[in-house]
Amino acid sequence: MSSPKQHAVAARHVFDGSVVQRNAAVVMEGARIIALVPRADLPVAMPTHDLPDGFWLVPGFIDLQVNGGGDVLFNDEPTPDGIRAIVKAHRRFGTTALLPTLISDTVETTKSAIAAVEALGGNEPGVLGIHLEGPFLSPERPGVHDLRHIRAPNAEDAALLLAPRPGVTVVTLAPEQVPPGFVRQLAGAGVRVCLGHSMASYAQTRTAMAEGLTGFTHLFNAMRPLASREPGPIAAALEAAGAWFGMIVDGVHVDPAMLRLALRGAARPMLVTDAMPPVGGQRSTFALYGEEITVRDGRCTRDDGTLAGAALTMAGAVRNCVEQLGVPLETALRFASANPASFLGLDHALGRLAPDYRADMVAFNPADAEVMQTWVAGRSSMAV
Question: Is 297 a catalytic residue?
Fold first, then answer.
């Protein structure tokens, strides 16, 4: 007999993170998945929500690079309320867990952002930690980051980043801009270190990887390009089976042909949005470092044409991955869930629909990338 607290969600297609189960159901109790069973095996009395035809039940999307959403920019509102607004905006598009991402800013803002994430504690399961994109970047590859904030790390920075804290910390840096051993220090403390906004050579990248760097933030963007005599970080990333790289699949940041090439490498891909405030918001403009950013034709740009993040959702990224990169839907779904969970070291709890995993799920229509409903730690919310 089932516990009265148990309930189920059933669908004609349930993607468990590895394979598609036909006419199956996920049984939940509280925040956890109890079982994945054939729909016909459910007890008659068990409360069951059947998804409409066309909707798949899939693992919740995990986004490691979220600058904003719901008309909120994390840099401007590094507070628990600001984070909650961003999380709510992205949940409508299937993102059940994310890392609020702070781009290069002052020490005071960085401390506020870290404190805001810590203040949420376990009260917001959609927040897995924090991503600090900068300020230890290359001034030659700043992208939209403010050069006034880009700098080398000091002892105070090291103490802040090495301090124990709940959740996962991801730091994007340019390895050629940090002292020898800095990457090893961070990695040794459990920080996930990524290369981004960098002019590192191939040799410098390999050295950083030997010290514990495992990720590459928005591969191709804001980093030394591939060249015949200096392959740089892109080649170092793609030939390493233990490396992970983020892809912004919006047809704007990187030509799909380059991403298709990257998928032929040994490294493991993850979908990220690099999302800005307009995602899930009402406005088509926002301010960044005091400059107006305009969203037009799917592009977020400054007046000079510099890209400033993206107006991309994870549901849209999955669709684009299938349509632009030609990968099977199941593979695109793994790029959005199981792979980022593995990169963060959370693959024992997230990224799959299996017993003892957290009940993070999405009712997703592959035909049009529509998200009808999400479940975060077993709690349902309808997309609007």
Answer: no
